[in-house]
Amino acid sequence: MNHKRLTLFAGHYGSGKTNIAVNYALHLAGEGKPVVIADLDIVNPYFRTKDSAAVLEKAGVALISPQYANSNVDLPALPAESYRLVQDKSIYGIMDIGGDDRGAYALGRYVPAIKEENNYRMVFVANASRPLTRTPEEALEVMREIEAACGLRFTDIINNTNLASETTAQTVLDSLPYIEELSRLSGLPIFATTAVTAVAEMLEGKIPEVLPLQLQEKYFDLPSQKPMSRPLWG
Amino acid sequence: MAQRVLMKGNEAIAEAAIRAGCRHYFGYPITPQTEIAAYMAKKMPKIGGVFLQAESEIASINMVYGAAATGCRVMTSSSSPGISLKSEGLSYIAGSDIPALVVNVQRGGPGLGGIQPSQSDYFQATKGGGHGDYRMIVLAPASVQEMASLTIKGFNLADKYLMTSMILADGTIGQMMEPISFEEAEVETYEKPWALTGTEGKRKHNIVNSLYLQPDALEKKNFERYERYKIVEENEPMWEEYMMEDAEICVVAFGIASRVAKNAVVAARNEGIKVGLIRPITLWPFPKKALRAAADKCKSFISVELSMGQMIEDIQLATECLRPVTLCNRAGGMIPSPDQVLESIRKAQKGE
User: What is the complex's ipTM, to 2 decimals?
Assistant: First the structure.
């Protein structure tokens, strides 16, 4: 996996951007790189990058999060500090962009600087199990809406097809025709395929570039549906 | 088995409503239920339905009132402060005896409160909210799958009993994602001879109204309505029992609180404590018989709620105050941890 200085994750809401952004940040930090992750989500009130603050801190990843994330203030405001990602060329920056085109408007603010530096990867997060992006054509429609909203074109696709606690290797393997068709329609390469650690192990050698994901244990997980990977934090 | 999809709770409600035959959605945005409106906005134009963002919650509930009078399946959704605004319309709909589906994805209150999850609209949902003598069928989903299945059930019950069905969820269930499937939806259809569909000059016109000029006529209508409510109370209570076979302590929790409580029940069982859970699925009609039966074999009850203690009163009524009921709660958008519930169970075990 080669890395650009800036990596942006965007996609349909609920496609898994935040989980991937956090895990990718940990992956880069594991290679000894200085990493800063910014939560640019101005849409979602719950389940934010900030939920992973402890594990990110432990791994030495700096987190920039909206001042009001996880509070009762439903205000689409971004911190001035987030500009560090485009200005400080000594760090690897990861941006977690909010859901859909409405979330992507926020990114527009940084696009001139991102284009000027031209050392970025903008990744479309695709999950074939999500109801509004069940076909490659529907996913492409969301892709184009996001690009129109933020003024930046995607460069890569990441296959994040999963069914949460029910994900098996077969779930991921079944999604390959979908993701290959999306790649063909958009003309973009498949940057990686994600899977929770236990499933990722089963996929080794069957799919190129598997990014294993550690999932967060949540208070509302039922006794029967604890994440299959060992939780990094809980 | 039908194909599995990964959905947010809010999306599941919207998709289920469409599958139940709902083609009319009127609403006004509010966190944390916005995905319902967003999903409807995307889907309705593609299937010949109506998505309309009204100028206010009051306008949207009155649009629901109007559409419901024509006999079509119609819904609105909101979160706590928005439901307060809709309460006048809910009373009018009840007074007109027509079916509708209303979703409340609750957030912390009172007042503008906050946007984090809560269950503090229990009283509002089960005891009225609007003015006058009336009831709503209140369904409390505890998973994304139930967000879907209870939405379909809600439409069926509304049509069957000419009432409003309310889905009483909370922010977490609205926002969280789980794999679900839409089995062949059990959509029931009912004749609606009362509906305003146009007489074409062939029949006497129908009237849908909640105004009665004579008090004795209004009284008669109220008594008739409560006869119907009695049938609902007799036939429609739904609940889940979990590890109740030999339970000496009974935890009662609905919705998101029941998921936390289940983890605590498992942990307490591992400590050798005989504890079980009753999860009301219908909050009105409340599963009184199940609670009353539990009072015969359990020594105490614990009500786990995301409120200052509202359902606890219905537990006390249903158990005829035969056993002590303690409260394990968080409020204002906070959620009890499994450890907090476990500690309450340990205390109950010691008779505290």
Answer: 0.85
